[in-house]
Amino acid sequence: MKYDLENIFTFVKHDEQWIQKLIIGSLFIVAMIVLFVIPFISLAVVPIASLPLFIICLFAAAIIGLGLYGYFFKTAQDYMNNPQTKLPQWSDFFSFVLIGLKGALGSIMYNLPFIIFNLVIVGFLLIFKADNSKIFEVATHMVDVVMQLFYIAYSLIYLVLEAVFIKKGFNPFQFLNFSEGYKMIKNNFIEYLILVVLYIAISTVLVACSFILFITIVGIVLIPFVIMYACIISFVITARFIQITDEQKSLQKN
Asked: Which residues contact 221 (CB under 8 A, 6 or more apart)?
């Protein structure tokens, strides 16, 4: 296996301040959630008077979310260039926001066809619903299966294009660079499958850990910390996949 899992999962320990940095990230996660929930509660209580608060809170939550997103991308890029690197400093937060914004724009461009396809399908289903209830019921089940399979395929491709985005210096249009994505998979298909399996495994463990911490009540405060760690590890695994593709390319040249 070309993935050095011990190095990946202990990567954060290369930084003597890793606990503080993960705690800061955890606080950002909590702040983002709180800022996202507060305006909806206030709108339910005082709809008109709470509108400015609603906009301000959502904007602040979006900024924090983009900053976190950018932090993960920057961590991946740093690891790609040097596996012994330290975690980025939070003092560069606004640069992370910019990186996160680029990543979000790239994701939107990539997902736009999927969104349009969904809208078209919904339109057809509404036509069937108006015409025949039995046809609508059958069509709904068929579409649900097709959409699930389509979404899985779309997500698998996204993983590769996210790697291209990191490798090419955070250019949003790299999310549409399918040719580069194909080149990365072409001679590294097994490593790509391992990447997918690791992502699924981390997501499963994260859900399980969060559930266990939640039912202990006291452990709830640790959930943001666990989420922060899991996200960093996921992006580092992507960075390692990029390194593997580069190593394979060098071997072919030699």
From this structure: none
